[in-house]
Amino acid sequence: MIRIERRHETPGWLVYAVPFISIAVSLLFVGLLLLTVGVNPVDAYMTMFSRSFGSKFGLTELFVKTAPIILTGLAVAIPLRAGLWNIGAEGQLYMGAFAASFIALYVSLPPPLVLPAMAFAASFMGLVWASLPGVLKAKFELNEIISTLLLNYVAIYWVDYLVYGPMRGKEVYNFPYSDIFPDFAILPRFFGTRFHAGVFIAIAIAVLLYYVVRKTGFGFAVKVVGANPKAAEYAGINRKKIIVYTMLIGGAVAGLAGMIEVGGIHMRLRSGLSPGYGYAGIPVALLAKGNPLAVILSAFLFGFLYVGGSALQTTYSIPVSIVYVFQALIVLFIIGGEFFTKYTIRRG
Amino acid sequence: MDFIASLIAASIRAGTPLLFATLGEIITERSGVLNLGLEGIMITGAMTGFAVSLLTGNPWLGVLAAGLAGMAMASIHAFFSITLKADQSVTGLMLVLLGIGLTGFLGRNYIGQVAEYIQPVNIPYLSELPFVGEAFFSHDPLVYAAMLLVPLTWFFLFRTRHGMEIIAVGESPEAADTLGISVEKLRYASVLIGGFLVGIAGAHLSLAYAKLWTDGMTAGRGWICLALVIFSGWMPQRAILGAYLFGGLDVLSFKLQAAGVGVSYHLLKMIPYVVTILVLLFSVMRKKEKFGAPSALGKPYIREQRY
Asked: What are the transmembrane regions (chain A) (predicted)?
């Protein structure tokens, strides 16, 4: 008979090895998948690498794609620390993009105030959008996974409605786009590439949130609620408040991701403005185990998958959805690996 | 009258995939396993069903393949959540990503193709009745199958030994274990049966309802079904009500659009999701019902170690 036993101690190397082994095994599986459509996986991976790291353009694109994923990763990671799943980062991003675009196009402010106002409006709108599932969870124990997810669809259709209807640009012909933002509503760019100020904003927010969760009483309370809701109650921590607050932070951060996308990349509100960055936040937060600084690193991995994924699309016309397969496999293998950090298998 | 009859008929057709998936998830959740991966399993079923029908020319082989594909996806969830005792939310969510990713990758060549689809069958005599004939008795066979499945699921869960054991495992795995019921085996079986039905839900979508394959065609129906399970209070007979109601909502947004109602197409598309949230809210507000969620739902069962 085979018996499964809980480990008393986990070997240190195993904890760090699991993510790397998972990534390697995922590469192997996706490689097999690529073989089925007649693409040599080694060539494909070389293409992904050279396109991401081989040029100034590739490298800056890597940062540009990573920035929103850092923010959506944080949007998942902070509630996750309290034991909550925010699967609504995608919708919160869209609502943030909508609020930022609204300020950029319709509110007249002194030009230097426009970008801060856009950032504020976007965070606030994301926060409002996340407050619904947060409050419903706190008050009625409504499953936040389902509610945040359904709200994604509502947000995406809302932006579609706007760019096909009231916010449709005057000179965009048949495209579902708004007008282009005025210059002062566009984030500064550097190095003659798309590398924009949003990259710094994303990293700064991650550092800030690291400080909040590690060094403040609030951060501690979140951790206790996440680790043991019963103990939190005995310690006099209001679990419901923590639920709502962490969701609000998550929503605000995801909303900001919407702002840096419209203000830094698209320069307008448009249909389909995120290629699933909100969903990428889920594996990113999991890989980082909820640690905001580790989110930066794991977001880079997923930024690489997006840049590499579009390289595969242009070179081999492989659909970008292969990126989703990668994401899912990495997480599944990590979970599988974690089993071995917690348990050991014995004969006897 | 004809308009209402055709509206009912269309609602039933649109609600059938929801019904299959909701019944499947009820069986799964009754055993205490939460499978959030419906969206990914359904789309895998939709693509597999379509592909097999296209390649073999037989839509029924497509339906069977879709069920098996759903089962294969569900087995991933079963392995991780039952054997490895992993967080059920995470695995379920990853099934969604996996399903959407794989079907986008493998299904790209099927977009725009025409496959043999499932023909409607008029039930002799009954379909000739005025009104009810059109509304209830001129559907494709999968619609009737879903209807029949409702009492069958009820009977299975509440009147057979295996069904009641599944419920016991979902309520109190410890107690069931002490009675010598194999928690793991029953959970595996429930997740696989559930996956089979969700796969069929996808096949109905691509082979009978839409009669085509497009990327991401399930469009959130899997998530709506998860809400419908809560709405139904984990009871099959209430699932049929919820599924047809939401089918009606789907149809209504089409009909309103066709009738040239001056509301944007995109706002109409929002309706099912908004209503789902409201219904969910309503369902959880009147808690303390006789039949609520299985007590052990979402919790991995780890038998205590005895030294």
From this structure: 12-37, 57-80, 92-109, 115-136, 145-164, 195-213, 242-260, 293-312, 318-340
Show the domain range for A210: 71-286
Domain count, chain A: 1
Handedness of CA B75, B78, B84, B87 (dihedral sign): positive
CB of A263 within 8 A of CB of A98? no
Residue-by-residue pLDDT tens, chain B, 307 positions:
678 888 899 999 999 999 999 999 999 999 999 999 999 999 999 999 999 999 999 999 999 999 999 999 999 999 999 999 888 999 999 999 999 999 999 999 899 899 999 998 888 888 888 888 888 888 999 999 999 999 999 999 999 999 999 999 999 999 999 898 999 999 999 999 999 999 999 999 999 999 999 999 999 999 999 999 998 999 999 999 999 999 999 888 878 877 777 778 888 889 889 999 998 888 877 765 545 788 888 888 887 644 3
What string of DSSP letters covers B46-98? HHHHHHHHHHHS-HHHHHHHHHHHHHHHHHHHHIIIIIS---HHHHHHHHHHH
Instruction: State both tokens at B127.
Output: 């379909």
Chain B residues with CB under 8 Å of A326 CB are 101
Contact A328 B85 (CB under 8 A): no
CB contact under 8 A, A157 and B267: yes
Is B277 in contact with A151 (Cβ distance < 8 A)?
A: yes
Task: Name the nearest CA neighbour of B187 among B201, B168, B206.
Answer: B168
